[in-house]
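To illustrate the input format used throughout this study, we show a single complete record. The first block contains the structure-token representation of the backbone; no residue identities are included at this stage. The design step must infer an amino acid for every position from geometry alone.
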């Protein structure tokens, strides 16, 4: 799809556990943090220092993946196994190992530079994800995020549409890495968000041009079919920020983790 990508945000609420018991998906809580442009460098410096302090304190149970866009927004994605994890205090291990006073001294400088925060829950549709074999294990940090808001009552049509796109990707040997997410609760409920990853913006633009050359009339027809189901499309671009993330070793265990 044109400008396919990922936009993150929203609000923790309880939902039927049936939604989360599927083996073809992964849950994430995603915090969208907005900072003032003048404070962006300070925010990043404080978060990077906090991450280093957590590692020095041997805090291994806390994991989050950070990306940033060009509008001074930061997306912090936390993988969770189920909704019960929302009842746990996220920083419990850090406070236990560091002590409450040291933890506050470490993390307060981060929060002091935050202008606004929103949180939402997303489900990564692993059965929709696509990666060309040539990109396996490659570190791709550029991101192109797009949110698709579909018309009400088109869920089954969207499911079939995604199958058609994935089939076309494979038939045409499309070189790209792409992941798809569905907003479960809050303002983004029911939207589909997708992230395209590339080495850099130049490579992304080159790959997109080659993509439309390869899919030709079939791709254009499928894109027209997609637009018929869409109410609104929003896009942003940015990059994955390894230095602002707190990750297990090795750094990138899976494509899903690195794609946040």
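Output of the design step:
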């Amino acid at each position: 799809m044109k400008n396919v990508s990922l936009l993150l945000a929203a609000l923790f609420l309880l939902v039927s556990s049936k939604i989360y018991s599927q083996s073809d998906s992964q849950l994430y809580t995603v915090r969208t943090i907005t900072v003032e442009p003048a404070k962006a460098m300070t925010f990043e410096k404080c978060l990077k220092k906090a991450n280093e302090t957590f590692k020095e304190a041997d805090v291994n149970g806390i994991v989050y993946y950070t990306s940033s866009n060009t509008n001074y927004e930061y997306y912090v994605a936390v993988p969770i196994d189920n909704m019960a994890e929302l009842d746990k205090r996220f920083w419990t291990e850090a406070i236990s190992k560091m002590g409450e006073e040291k933890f506050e001294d470490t993390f307060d400088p981060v929060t002091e530079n935050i202008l606004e925060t929103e949180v939402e829950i997303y489900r990564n549709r692993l059965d929709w994800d696509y990666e060309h074999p040539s990109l396996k294990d490659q570190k791709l940090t550029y991101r192109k995020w797009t949110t698709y808001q579909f018309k009400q009552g088109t869920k089954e049509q969207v499911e079939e549409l995604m199958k058609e796109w994935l089939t076309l990707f494979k038939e045409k040997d499309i070189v790209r890495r792409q992941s798809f997410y569905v907003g479960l609760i809050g303002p983004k409920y029911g939207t589909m968000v997708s992230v395209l990853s590339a080495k850099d913006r130049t490579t992304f633009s080159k790959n997109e041009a080659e993509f439309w050359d390869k899919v030709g009339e079939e791709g254009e027809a499928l894109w027209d079919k997609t637009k018929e189901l869409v109410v609104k499309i929003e896009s942003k671009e940015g990059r994955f920020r390894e230095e602002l993330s707190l990750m297990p070793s090795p750094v990138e265990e899976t494509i899903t983790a690195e794609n946040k």
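Structural context for interpreting the output: The chain has six helices and nine strands. Helices lie at 40-56, 92-98, 100-111, 155-171, 201-229, 255-258.
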